[in-house]
Amino acid sequence: MTRKHTFCRICEPLCPIVATVDEAGAAVKLEPDRDHPVSKGFACHKGLNFLQVHNDPDRVNQPLRRTNPKGELPAQFEPVSWDEAFADIGQRLRAIRDKYGPDALSVYFGNPVSLNSNAFPLAASLGAQIGSKRNFSAGTQDTANKPAAVEAVLGTLNLFPIPDFANTRYLLCFGGNPKVSHWTYTSLHRPLSVLQDIIGRGGKVRFINARRIESAGEKTGEVTLIRPDTDVYFMAALLCEIHRNGLYDKAHVEHHGHNVDALWDFVSAFPSERVATVTGIDATTILAIAHEYATAPSAAIYMATGVNQGRQGTLAYWLLLMLSFVTGNLGRTGGDYYAKGFYPNARAVAPAPAPIVDLPSGPVNVVAGSLPGHALGELAGQGSDPIRGLIVLSGNPLLSMPGEAAMRKGFPKLDLMVHVDLFRNATGEYADYILPAADWLERAECNLSANAMQPQPFIQSVDAVVSPQHDRRDDWWIISRLQQELELPSALDRPDADMLGRARKILSKIGLSIEEIRAEPSQSILLPQAEREVFYDEVVFNPDHRVNCCPEPFGPAIERCHRLFDELSNEPAGIFKLISLRTNYMHNSNLANMPALKRDKHALNPLHIHPADIAAMGLAADDKLAVSNDYGLIETHFVEDESLQPGVVAMSHGYGHARSFGLSRAQAAPGANVNALMPTGAGSHEPLSNMAHLTGVAVKIGRA
Ligand code: SF4
Q: How far is the CA of 216 from the centre of ligand 1 (A)?
């Protein structure tokens, strides 16, 4: 038996793990790295059970070519060699591009490839490299609003200040549930211990959330309940109170900010007494929270996916940055700071006009290379100028994005779908080719994906625990081969092609090499923590090095914000709001076949309803419900959930596997695809970032 260092690549902590490999060369055990100086032995059940994915009998292990028509499910495939697959794929992709132009091709990349630092830059740029404007990413389902906000406010796409957990006396946490989802854009192990430490040193933690989350408790912080998708108004009210009560440092704000008056003008429309009804938080509490945040000796602020997925995630992240800025907590010890990491992620971006794409439902901007997710259903195989060739890189857009019904109609009409994945998932049922990707146990890598997210920066460099099994290949190699077939520059054109080439280049800039790192204990090198107080000197990238407190491009979104407030204020009583529910038993749709997650009562995703609503509707425990709105209808069972507010219902995404014939365990307990209820068509996405509207969605509930 040998023990090998590796790290999990499922979410941002990238937890260090020790794998045991037996004499036959098979990985047989995964354990947390108890000696690691940063993670100190933390890893969660998802990473530690990853051998279930590595060895899953449902894995795609060799290139597969479809043998039955695309409209027919289940799909039938035959194994082919990589050479055969690429010869045909290349010829068909080139034929589509040459006949219809590059916009007839499209690339979608999903979450797993975003955490593959070798392949991510290739995946994220392949669509643009092809010359297509019509590309998609999982980012528009979870976090595209944050880069959109920081670009406008700070002049960079890649600077997400993180809370100074180690030093703060106060943490205000919006839309997150770290016990279940860990921290987003923040690479922390032991997600609750930082909260216990804040309270342990006499500080305070307050969650603002639409439900009483599992993370809250005496030692971890209290929850203030908010009506779903109204955080932007609560933040505006905090700023309004901070301004009208003089709880900010005027000289600091005027020295380091511009467009400050426009900010105050905007938030003045949302005093606490006006916002109380819409947010469900009374004016006295709003004022008290404004005071406690603004007057704490130091205060950090954080916002997660629960806000990102609302209708105004970009404005919410803007106001979050403003709360930190005007109170002097941005770039301050105990506030929020740029965790610079081991290479400079953040750099200036030159404002450029966003390309516009015409959809059947109207024109939309391309933001950060992606169209809004619902556009895939409108364009794939449909309309007068359809997408004809779709490359799906480690993803399952059919279940991850709004518009399942439209995609099921359009995908069979594609001239070609190439799906690169570990599994034949619901989207793969429409593929012409499925190309078997290697998993992270089969991949050499450095933990570059965690750069600028780590409070304690460290670099870890690992070799593959085992070489790719069967005929699996790393996404890096597969995408590089696709580039070659499309006659695009490719790393494989060079004789010394190396998937670690990017890592080597980055490390050489800081005087390190992969070999040096691998020689260290836990194959990790600790780096100094970022300085907190250099924010305005070093990391505000606007030309005047000042924070843009009210970016001009936000004008239409600000008007929309006022309009939506009026809509919410006049909303009739009795409407249910559906929020997204993360649990420890799912991870988007990509671990849907994992036995450790898909078990017992957790195998399904019933609708969670407050007991008062169950009583009011007179529901019996085994009633099946029809949940519907203008966008779709799903049938589901329900469970009672006291963590909710009356009128708020919750459901997990990543389900709906009835036709996922390649995922036997997921298909046996398919659940319902909650994304079938998410808005599609004109006005359904957040225009500044193309984020989908996935939480706080109005639904009707009745017996099925
Ligand atoms: S917290 Fe994330 S990175 Fe760590 S083991 Fe769990 S899934 Fe993997």
A: 21
14 lines ligand 1 (CB under 6 A): yes
Percentage of the chain with pLDDT > 70?
Answer: 100
* ipTM higher than the 0.95 cut: yes
Sign (positive or negative) of CA dihedral 637, 643, 646, 650: negative
Q: Which atom of ligand 1 is nearest to the CA of 44?
A: 6
Band of residue 367 on the pLDDT scale cut at 50, 70, 90: very high
Q: Which of 253, 339, 300, 291 is nearest to 550 (CA)?
A: 253
Distance 585 CA to ligand 1 centre (A): 13
Domain boundaries, the chain: 148-344+532-553, 572-703
pLDDT tens-digit series, residues 407-446: 999 999 999 999 999 999 999 999 999 999 999 999 999 9
Question: Dihedral angle at the C-alpha atoms of 291, 244, 252, 234, nearest 10 degrees?
Answer: 60
Atom of ligand 1 nearest to the CA of 7: 3
Closest residue by Cα to atom 4, ligand 1, is 15
Where does the pLDDT of residue 34 fall: very low under 50, low under 70, confident under 90, or very high at 90 and above? very high
CATH number for the 572-703 domain, one of 2.40.40.20, 3.40.50.2300, 3.90.1150.10, 1.10.10.60? Answer: 2.40.40.20
User: Would you say the CATH fold of 572-703 matches that of 148-344+532-553?
Assistant: no
Q: Which CATH superfamily is domain 148-344+532-553 in?
A: Dimethylsulfoxide Reductase, domain 2 (3.40.228.10)
Residue closest to 40 by CA, chosen among 184, 211, 194: 194
Taking 80 as the threshold, does the pLDDT of residue 581 lie above it? yes
Helices 475-485 and 120-130 pack at an angle, to 10 degrees, of 20
Best residue among 42, 46, 51, 181 to mutate for probing ligand 1's pocket (most ligand atoms within 8 Å of CB) is 46
Give the C-alpha separation, 605 to 669, whole Å.
9
Query: Which atom of ligand 1 lies at the shortest distance from residue 9's CA?
Result: 3
Distance separating the N- and C-terminal Cα atoms of the chain: 55
* 316-327: pLDDT as tens digits: 999 999 999 999
Ligand 1 in reach of 43 Cβ (< 6 A): yes
Percent of the chain at pLDDT exceeding 90 = 92
